[in-house]
Description:
75% helix, mainly alpha, single chain, elongated, 2 domains
Amino acid sequence: xxxxxxxxxxxxxxxxxxxxxxxxxxxxxxxxxxxxxxxxxxxxxxxxxxxxxxxxxxxxxxxxxxxxxxxxxxxxxxxxxxxxxxxxxxxxxxxxxxxxxxxxxxxxxxxxxxxxxxxxxxxxxxxxxxxxxxxxxxxxxxxxxxxxxxxxxxxxxxxxxxxxxxxxxxxxxxxxxxxxxxxxxxxxxxxxxxxxxxxxxxxxxxxxxxxxxxxxx
Length: 217
């Protein structure tokens, strides 16, 4: 688990740089902001925006995970800068580039939250929820939906996790997703009634979910 104080210090450092970027955006200096973001990425991660955005999400994650361990500093800097880059492109009325940055930022942030077992009171969850809200009206690719399915289970929001599970099964059916669904309900079977109720779920719905999985076989 990431040390809470460490995250707060890193978030404070990133927040200082973001305040300058947001100032540029508020003055409609979007191109200047994009140049500043690129400079910050190079300074703190050694990577340019162009290179980061040229990589598929999975390849970017691999490049940030030497020996299989995610580089938290670089991942958080990149996720934060991509989110701000998305906001800049939104200001330029370029929804395609904005969407691309937001999804890439969300992908990295969800992976960081999962791998590092971040505490439930971390401000990183607010960042993730803000990105989820920004993308609410868009169709998300399967690999992002998979991360969201896992994210909502991790947060104990079982009803929302189930929604993403069945969206995946309807839109991107695969034996792997079916197996993930089976294991999801098996984990929920072991939860107490109170735990399930807190996640807007019940043991009856667990059984109903298992029954529904059968039609995808």
